[in-house]
């Protein structure tokens, strides 16, 4: 197999600058375990996706509208990045009470001016800022289907409509783990799991693999995580917490 014939070409970044955009997706990712400044915590996360008006990108031989996204921790304080972002977007400050009552779903389909800045390593195009459309500028339109996902109104149909990478994020949420935890109690002695871990480590140390032990350990870990989810938070798959997410440029 020739690697170059199988590997997908990198998608070129959209240029840095300010763009007219439309919000085409708002995704409630639920409560996620995040690591930030050396600490682990739980935070509800939301993802806002914009379509850059007039910008396209070729993916797998098909020309598609260019999309960029940004993720936020859901927090209501005056210094929260989400509150600052939405305030800049609407061009008017919130009172504390107004922001607590604000329904983010109303942002879907709204136009904006977004500032795109590349990450330091040059791998990603990030939404660095936003503002309302200047007065007198025509309101842009899009033929792209608008997407809204709210984990509190979870349906399998809405979940399956998400891109695969967003499905994986939602699966890691506390809410998803609770909804899909097994009904029957599962319990594996810690001693048994420790024995499996030792078998796996010993095999790897000699350059071999104990596949039976690895499979058993994987299944027991999944079952233990599901049991934890029934009573609250799960501790699997910690994710980075910065508000500007490094992501593929589409």
Describe the protein.
By secondary structure, the chain is an alpha/beta fold. The protein has two domains: 3-172 and 236-240, no CATH class; 190-231. The protein is 30% helix and 29% strand. The chain is built from eight helices and seven strands. It has helices at 3-6, 81-90, 96-101, 156-160, 164-171, 174-179, 190-205, 211-231; strands at 17-36, 39-59, 62-73, 111-118, 125-131, 147-149, 239-240. Strands 1, 2, 3, 4, 5, 6 and 7 form a seven-stranded mixed sheet that branches. Strand 4 and strand 5 (125-131) form a beta hairpin. Helix 7 runs antiparallel to helix 8 (211-231). The longest helix has 21 residues, at 211-231. The radius of gyration is 22 Å and the shape is globular. The protein starts with a helix and ends in a 10-residue tail after the last strand.
């Amino acid at each position: 197999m020739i690697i170059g014939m199988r590997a997908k070409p990198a998608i070129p970044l959209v240029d840095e600058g300010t763009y007219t955009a439309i919000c085409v997706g708002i995704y409630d990712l639920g409560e996620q375990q995040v690591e930030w400044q050396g600490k682990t915590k739980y935070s509800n996360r939301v993802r806002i996706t914009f379509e850059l008006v007039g910008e396209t990108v070729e993916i797998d031989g098909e020309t598609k509208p260019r999309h960029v996204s940004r993720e936020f921790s859901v927090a209501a304080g005056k210094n929260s990045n989400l509150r600052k972002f939405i305030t800049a977007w609407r061009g008017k400050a919130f009172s504390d009470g107004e922001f607590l009552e604000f329904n983010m779903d109303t942002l879907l389909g709204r136009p904006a001016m977004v500032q795109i800045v590349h990450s330091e390593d040059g791998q990603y195009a990030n939404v660095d800022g936003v503002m309302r459309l200047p007065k007198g500028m025509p309101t842009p339109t899009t033929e792209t289907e608008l997407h809204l996902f709210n984990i509190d109104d979870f349906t399998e149909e809405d979940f399956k409509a998400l891109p695969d990478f967003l499905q994986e994020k939602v699966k890691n949420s506390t809410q998803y783990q609770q909804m899909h935890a097994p009904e029957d109690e599962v319990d594996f002695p810690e001693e048994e799991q420790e024995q499996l871990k030792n078998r796996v480590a010993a095999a790897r140390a000699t350059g071999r693999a104990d596949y039976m032990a690895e499979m058993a350990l994987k299944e027991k870990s999944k079952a233990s995580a599901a049991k934890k989810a029934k009573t609250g938070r799960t501790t699997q798959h910690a994710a980075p917490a910065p508000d500007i997410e490094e992501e593929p440029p589409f």
